[in-house]
Amino acid sequence: xxxxxxxxxxxxxxxxxxxxxxxxxxxxxxxxxxxxxxxxxxxxxxxxxxxxxxxxxxxxxxxxxxxxxxxxxxxxxxxxxxxxxxxxxxxxxxxxxxxxxxxxxxxxxxxxxxxxxxxxxxxxxxxxxxxxxxxxxxxxxxxxxxxxxxxxxxxxxxxxxxxxxxxxxxxxxxxxxxxxxxxxxxxxx
Length: 189
Known about the structure:
Elements: E1 5-12, E2 41-48, E3 56-63, H1 71-85, E4 98-102, H2 111-116, H3 118-122, E5 125-129, H4 141-151, H5 160-179
Parallel strand pairs: 1-4, 4-5
Antiparallel strand pairs: 1-2, 2-3
C-alpha cells in the first residue's frame, strides 16, 4: 500500500488577535491590529497519516524575512518528503513511489513548479490535487489547529526568531506524539 503524504501550509503571527475588549456603553470599540508587519512565520508540513510504520509528520518553518514560500522552496520541501518516504535517489536506488496530495495554493500550480515536474515524477513522486476550498478533506488541518492553538504555550513573542523557535518546538513535539500514537488521528469530516 502506498501511503499518501498530504502537504499543506500554515502561518503563525507573534500575537493573537484581540478577541474581546471593554469600552464605553454605546460606543463601538475599535482595537488596532497589533502584530507588526514582517514578523510572520510560515510553516509547511507533510503528513502521512496512513503510513504502515505509523503516522509521520515532516515540517519546515520560514520567517518572512527569510523570503517567501516560492516554487524553489516548495520543490525543495517535496524532495525532502520524497527522501523521507523512501523514493529512489542516487544514494538509495531502491524505488518506492510517493504520492503527495496538494491543496490549491498558488505556488503548487505555478509555472516554475510545472516546468520542474518531470524531475520529481521521473523519480517516483506523483501529485494529486484536492478540489478548491475543501480543507476538511486534508487530515493535516487538525494537526495545524493543535499546533497553533494548543502546542505553543506563550501567546505573544517579541521577535520573529522567538516565534519561529516556539513553532519549531511545537511541530517537533507534535511529530513525536504522532509517531507514538496508534494511528488514531482525527479524520476529516
